[in-house]
Design goal:
By secondary structure, the chain is an alpha+beta fold. The protein has 3 domains: about 170 residues, no CATH class; about 90 residues, no CATH class; about 60 residues, no CATH class. About 35% of the residues lie in helices and about 25% in strands. The protein contains 12 helices and 12 strands. Strands 11-9-10-12 form a 4-stranded mixed beta sheet, with helices on both faces. A hairpin with a 5-residue loop joins strand 9 and strand 10. Helix 5 crosses helix 6, helix 5 crosses helix 9 and helix 6 crosses helix 9. The longest helix is centred in the middle third of the chain and has 17 residues. The two termini are about 45 Å apart. Bound molecules: zinc ion. Zinc ion binds next to helix 5 and helix 6.
């Protein structure tokens, strides 16, 4: 794209740099804001698929067959669809169970007794057909888009990448398919959108290798956490740090080393995302101001302080290190207007 040969540019946007630095200091100190609960998109009533109840192995067989919905001949007929002529089935494995008497040891009494229980005695192959090999009544289409789109959502489209929200199988939150230029999201959590967007953009710098490559994962996760900081989604940093540590084999020191090693790539990815965003998309970021009820150590009176979400991160660090003798008691209000925050508060930090 005409960028080859140009020297790496220094990131112009101070905000990006600032957020990244804050994130790194949080990782270093291990002092992270409280984690938010992660969520998954649940399949809605009327959109259930038989494969939702399959074993992981069978679902893998289905994905390998290149589909996200496979059913038996009769199961397709039941929803008004017919298997196309000449379509080939693929097979999943179903356990064969029999009821057998098994000996159970009662841990309390130490006695043995017999009980009838289903026991797997073997497996049989069940032929199933891909949705793509059927025709007939369309399946109900359910919109799984989040009620509010994540920040920088349009950046994906501008880079020619499709984004799709759908229920997953619970084993992962999202994926990026370079061949299809598609991001699949099984959660509405913004961090996952940022993570997959980072993979997609990283892929434009150097082609991604298949599977879970630690370097690629650390780049994507660091980018995602930085963007979360910028947009005020502070509760994801904890999850990010756990993920990065896991990529580096569990050791915090190794994890930090790995983050430092890939920092250039992180900045390059962030810069490209930033370039693809329009001014309004960039403009909304980081401008959340919070008003806290605070108290000085050893004093009874409380007062209101206003600060940006970014400032709050570093302030919490200062408090934790004992450099600031204030306590934040209660979040009173949030606003995007700094002047409003100032008017509401007794002071600004
Ligand atoms: Zn990833």
């Amino acid at each position: 794209m005409g960028r080859a040969g140009t020297p790496p540019r220094i990131m112009k946007e101070e905000r990006l740099r600032e957020a990244l630095e804050k994130l790194l200091s949080m990782f270093k100190s291990g002092n992270l804001p409280p984690a938010v609960a992660r969520t998954m998109i649940r399949r809605q009533a009327g959109d259930e698929r038989p494969s939702d109840k399959w074993s992981l192995g069978n679902r893998l067989l289905m994905y390998l067959a290149g589909t996200e919905d496979a059913r038996g001949f009769r199961q397709w007929e039941e929803v008004g669809r017919h298997v196309k002529k000449g379509a080939k089935a693929f097979h999943i494995l179903a356990p064969l169970t029999k009821t057998r008497k098994v000996k159970i040891r009662d841990p309390e009494r130490g006695e043995e007794r017999e009980e009838e229980r289903p026991v797997i005695v073997g497996f049989r192959f069940i032929p199933v057909f891909r949705l793509e090999d059927t025709e007939g009544k369309p399946l109900p289409e359910i919109n799984y888009m989040p009620p509010e789109l994540p920040p920088l959502f349009d950046v994906a489209a501008r880079l020619g990448i499709k984004v799709r929200y759908s229920p997953g199988d619970g084993s992962y939150y999202g994926s990026f398919q370079p061949g299809l230029k598609r991001i699949n999201l099984h959660t509405h959590d913004v961090k996952t959108y940022f993570h997959e967007l980072a993979h997609a953009v990283h892929n434009t710098i150097r082609p991604l290798v298949g599977g879970q490559d630690p370097v690629q994962e650390v780049v994507a996760e660091t980018v995602a956490c930085t963007l979360c900081e910028i947009y005020g989604y502070t509760g994801y940093a904890w999850h990010g740090w756990q993920y990065i540590k896991a990529c580096a084999g569990g050791e915090p020191k190794q994890a930090l080393k790995l983050v430092m090693k890939v920092l250039c790539e992180v900045e390059e990815v962030l810069e490209r995302i930033w370039e693809a965003a329009n001014p309004e998309e960039r403009g909304v970021c980081g401008l959340t101001y919070r008003i806290w009820e605070a108290q000085n150590a050893g004093e009874d009176t409380t007062y209101l302080v206003a600060m940006s979400a970014m400032r709050e991160i570093s302030l919490r660090e200062e408090i934790a290190r004992g450099e600031r003798l204030i306590r934040l008691l209660r979040l009173v209000a949030e606003t995007e207007d700094r002047n409003r925050a100032r008017r509401m508060a007794d002071c600004e930090i």
